[in-house]
Amino acid sequence: MLNVLIRKDISQVILMFDYSNATHYQRILLFCVSVLLSSTLEAEQKPYAPEKIEGVAIVSAEEVIEMILADPDLIVIDSRKKTEYLKGHIEGAINLLNTRLKREEFERISADKSRKILFYCNGVRCLRSSDSINKVKEWGYTNLIWFRGGWKEWSEKRLPVVTD
Amino acid sequence: MIGIVAIILSLFAGSYFKQAALDAQMNSLSRVIEVASQEMLKQVRHHTFDLGMKLGHSRELISTINSLSEPGNQQKLVEILDDPFVNGFVGFSNVDLKKIRVYNLQLDLIGESSARPGELGDKLADYLTAIVTEREKSDRLKAVDALWMSPEGPLFSSLTPIGGLRPIGYLEIIVNPVFNLPDIGNITKTPLHIYSISGELVNKDAQDLTGDYLPVEFTLHASDGTPAFRIVGYENVDELNREMEQTQTVTINGFLLLSLGTLLFALWLFNRFLFSPVSRMVDDMQQITHGKLELTVNNRGLREFHVLANAFNAMTDQVRTRTNDLQRLLDLDDSALMCFDHDNDAVYFNKGATKLFGYSSDEIIDLDFADLFSDDIAQLMKEAAEMKELHQGNLRVQLECKHKNGDKFQSDAIINSIDVMGKSGFAIALNPTPGSENPASPQNDQRINAVEQTLSSLLSFARDNPGVMSELGNLGHAESTAAGVDAQKSQLREHVVQVMNLSLTCWEHNLGKSKIELADESKIWPVYIDKSTPTTRTLDKYLNIDNCPKNPRCQRVIDTAEFVLKKTASKNAPEQKQLQAALDEFRLLISGMKTKSR
Description:
The structure holds two protein chains of two kinds. Chain A has helices spanning about 1-15, 25-45, 60-70, 80-85, 105-110, 130-140, 150-155; strands at about 55-60, 75-80, 95, 115-120, 145. By secondary structure, chain A is of the alpha/beta class. The model of chain A is unreliable at about 1-20 (pLDDT under 50). In chain B, α2 (about 60-65) packs antiparallel against α3 (about 75-85), α14 packs parallel to α17 and α14 (about 485-510) packs antiparallel against α18. The radius of gyration of chain B is 58 Å and the shape is rod-shaped. Chains A and B meet through α3 of A and α1 of B.
């Protein structure tokens, strides 16, 4: 992220560069570099979620179903935006956006820090659920599960969805 | 012949190209229809899935199914299933909902909507049954779709679980795909007709079939592989031909432009690396051959030209060195060496000659026999030849010479007849100290022969390269004579005399000064002291047509006229206008002669 930000800053610096003192060739070169850098940044603006999170189990959609059916006390956290949640979500999921995740609120949902909690968001190019997991991990929760494929995998497999 | 063959080939190629393009377009359209039909089914599937999920999570439906055996619940189930037909649902206008049916987990039909009755049977389509029964555990929760053949024709069904992750049965949403099939035409942008397998037209899009169209058929199969529909797209042949012609035109023009561009680029390359360097080299070489030996040929360019230019420069350098050596040798000789052309004008003289006669280099070139010798050398040579007194072609005599200051003195001379510019001339070697050396000694003969050969070589070189040797300044004019332009030279001399006389008249009338003063002030003409009397011998020659040199020094004439015009500028006399007009005419004549000589 920092890398992206740094590179973005460089791009902006280049785009804002004072071309008045540059020669013809320098102007063309700077223009090409800025265009190239800008397009590269565009492609990199949607980064991938981490492959794994230390101490967190990653599960597939089928495993999510089996876990829900096997453990009625399993808490499922949907880390997406409210509008996305309302369009469709996994049965029993609680909508809790990562940026609004507060320790007190989360402890009200699950005071037991060893309880199984499953997180998901939009998919492998969404960083919300991994961000939520990292926060919750810092608060001492130990039994965390990550459905990394998220909503994309769930809907592609045409599994049951709940719409409100 | 080649043109006819080219035309026939282009016609043949055009026809072949059109046919190939038409075939390709048809194949392409068939493929596009296939992809578009899949896209259409995907959109239908999306709507049926949404409706299935909505109903499948309905608490009312779930509780009714759970208590289906209770009285009235069967009817209630039908009412619930009829609700989407009555009150609509999201995407209602996008599909043609045919029926909604409910099955238990064993896929037995337990209820169906009553709206839009039909003969669909009481069983789930075999294809769907097979898929669901083959699935295990969580896979059974996944929705499944199929295009299947009912007794009423092809229908599309989506089977979704009722009750979410803990299913109590299955819900089948059945729609008529014929309603959506015309959407394919919106994707392919062509008129589209949908036929049943039996050939009956079941639907078509709104586009008109006016013009020349070519049908392209695609068979849409049901999920079990049975042919379901014949979808016929119509390709507008006129439009296709127009596009092909446009493509052909663009291609040909593009090719021509590319060819032209390549040709121009090739020409530029040739010009840059071949024609221009060669032209520059030729210009340089011509200037060098016209006497500018100090120039060098530009050797920038391709390697071959570089080598050629270097070779030429080396050759020029050799010529310059050898010429200078020869001239230096002649200058080093003690004798006064002189060369006169057919018109008795001096064309070469060494330093010994200028020293002996007391003239400067500029002065002596204006002189002829009569100015330097009292004897008629031509006559002497003629008489000697008749008397057979020539010794090895040389005439040894004592000549009476005239010094610049008017003194006369005797000098031993060896006169040789030589070729000067293709005509007979004379080379004269004068011994500066008469009587001190025997002119007939063998050493002197050898020296004279060597000098004669050197002089001949120089003259020959100067003839081929006019202007190369500054001392041989008259040779260029001599060549003109040799070229047979006597009439022009005569005209030139007349103009010279006219301009000079007008200059003198203008000078004398406007300034009241003499001819001597003109020569003295202008520094153009030498003033001689002849027996203590100043004379302008050279200038005098230019005032009389009979005495005017055969090769007059035109630049001196122009300089004189300009000098006089400048000095008399304030007078505004009629002589000035005459002189100016004569000078202009003279310049025109000279420029005309130069152009012709080039």
